[in-house]
Amino acid sequence: MADSTLQGGCFCNSVRYELTGSLQHARACHCSRCRKAFSGASSAYAEISPSSSFVWVSGEDLLSIHETGEGWGMAFCSKCGSTLCGLHEGVVHGLTLGCIDGDPGVEIEMHIFVGSKAPWDHIGGDAVQYAEHAPVDRHDRGDGA
Fold this sequence. Notes:
Elements (H helix, E strand, L loop, with lengths): L3 E6 L6 E6 L1 E7 L2 H7 L6 E4 L4 E6 L4 E7 L2 E6 L5 E6 L2 E6 L13 E3 L15 E2 L16
Parallel strand pairs: 3-10, 10-11
Antiparallel strand pairs: 1-2, 2-5, 3-4, 4-9, 6-7, 7-8, 8-9
């Protein structure tokens, strides 16, 4: 995808952001932790490309941070609870696709942790599925799983 400007925000619209650039490595994680964090069958998450620029436009003071592992975390709107992004070492690493306004310019390319998906979940489409993590050479970890 060519560089563009993406905008997004939380459900109550109190927290807003802007990304100039592109996303990469879009994935859905079906582990029990992501199901709870995203209140659904899976996460829908993509990493920010290294050459991209991310900025909070409004509501940064409303973010709540939850550490998911050493150096990894997630940011939520403290008013409405929307999961907005993943963090690595305190820096926004990737965005939740459902909070982006319009077309994020990527599609889910893989499903991870399908070995622990919910019994009521049916995964459609033809994106590759992994029982646990994707092979190391596929991408960096970023969704806290």
